[in-house]
Structures are given as structure tokens and as C-alpha cells.
Amino acid sequence: MLVLCRSALGGALGTSSCGAVVRSSRVAMVATPSQRGHSTTSNPPAPSSTTERHETLHRALPPVATPFARQPTLEDRRSIEERQLRHPASDLAAVPAQCQCPYGFPQAILLRPVGKNKPVSGLIRLTCPHLVAAVDEFEAEGGVASMNRELVGGARGPEWQEALQGINDAHRQLRRALTSEAEAERVKERFGEAGAESFFNSGIAGMSPTKLDDVKCLHAQLADSLLRGRDNNKIGSAVEEELRARGVDIGGNGCCYEQCDYNRAETKDTWSYVPIKNKQKLRTRNARRSQEKEKERAARRRRGPEAASSAAKQDPGEGEV
Asked: What angle is formed at CA 294 by the lines to CA 289 and CA 297, rounded to 5 degrees?
């Protein structure tokens, strides 16, 4: 059975539970950009802020990145920002030159280490919602601890430790190559000479380059494998193998394109996933805001009813959630 986008082919024989059109075929058929509703000759309309950001950050990739990465198109950027991350990716530098997604959406991204706001420790990010969901589940079931045991005392330990050293070296080289002289000076101003040197020498996901007993983050390892290639990240390749053993198709689940395709309206019935880490950050932020509001209310009560009444007039939405 072959799962296809509705926009790709008409006259389908039926639909899956997630709304994807299903047709029996012996020949693999993949929706092209034009079949997904994307123009192959010109970029689709986009918010002016996105367009301006795309033009501003359209910097050439350093030679060290060009064998495996390409600059994102405006279509890539819209999918990443509007549907995968759901926030602007001002530091976006590249997407994989070769993609395993049958619908053509980026599964991982390369970030510039020094953004317009602050330096970022991680250069690679997994963006495919389908794969993020799979790795979230794997990590929640002890995936990091399991792979660390293999790294430290398993049969593949020496091989993995050597691979991890190479991964960290590659990320150190990438971080420096992606940073301009002006950006390097900004990092020195922010962290000082020693701090800047530590920042630029850090490995994957910002880890210490000499720390070889921790895989750090399975999302980052898989993203690095998808971006730079399986042969360049054996740990990320092992994560991919583990996901396949758990029944995860690296190419998608037949429904996941519904989230990534910005031309497709999202409803309560379309497939989507909110990463566990995002949920945790949201809960933490909401809890912190609730605590701050409660402190403000307590302070007003101590100042007396007149202060509380005055504050309520200034902020009529106080207390609403």
C-alpha cells in the first residue's frame, strides 16, 4: 500500500484514518513540490517578515558544510517556521542536501551558532514532528541511559567513543566556520576570552569535547546523522536503527505531512505533535507566571484595598487564565 497526499493524486480508492489518500501500487510515487501545491518556478506568497528574514540571512555556506547541506528555500523556511517549530528560525543556515522524507519536507536543520539575539550551543536540530515524537517516546523509556550504557561498557563502546570524538570535532569545526569575525567578537564580549574559547570548542548539543561517556541528546544525534550522513554519526545511525526496530518508519507515518504542509489547513482531525520538551517549557513558564501573579496579588493585599482596586482598573484582565 502506498500513502499519498490528497494534493498529489486524485481519484483515490479510499482514505486512511488520518485522512491520507491511499492507493495500491508497486511503483513508489512521491509528491513533488508542485503536487503539494508548491510552485516549482517561483516561491509562494509569504509574510513580509519571513521574506525579509530569508533575504537577510541568505548567507553562503562554508565549504565544510556544502557536501551534505544546502541553503533552505523559502518553502523550506515556511514549513519549518510555520508548522514544524511554530516560531521564527532566525538562525537557520541549512537543511539536508538529501532528505529521507517522501513528501520533501526538511527533517533536520543546521543553525548558525551566533544568532541575532544570543549564541546557541546546539548547531543541529531535529524538526520532523514524526521523528521528534518517536525520539521523545524512546527517551522517555530510558533511551539515553540505554545508549550510555552501551557507550561506556557495551560491545560497541570503544567504536562509539571514537565516533563521538569525531562528532564533537566536526561540530567544533562547523561552529567556527559558520561564525563571522564580527559574530566571534560579540561572543567574546558576552562570555569573555575563556568563555568564548569554550563555546567555540564545544561539541554536539554544546557538550564538552572531551566528555565521551554521554550521548547527550538523541534528537541531536539523529538530526546530525540525517544531516551529515549515517557514516559520519554512528550514534545517530544507531538511534535510527533502534527506531526502526520499534516500528518507526524514518520516512513518515502516512499522516505526518499534514502538519508540515503549510498549504494545508489544520483542523482537530489533522495529524500534529507538540514535543514533550515544549510542553514542559510551557508548563514551567505558566507556573512561573502564576507564581509572579500571586506575589503581585499578595503585595497589593498588603498595601491595602485601594492599591488592589487601582491595579485592577489598570489591568482588567488580571486573574484571567
From this structure: 130
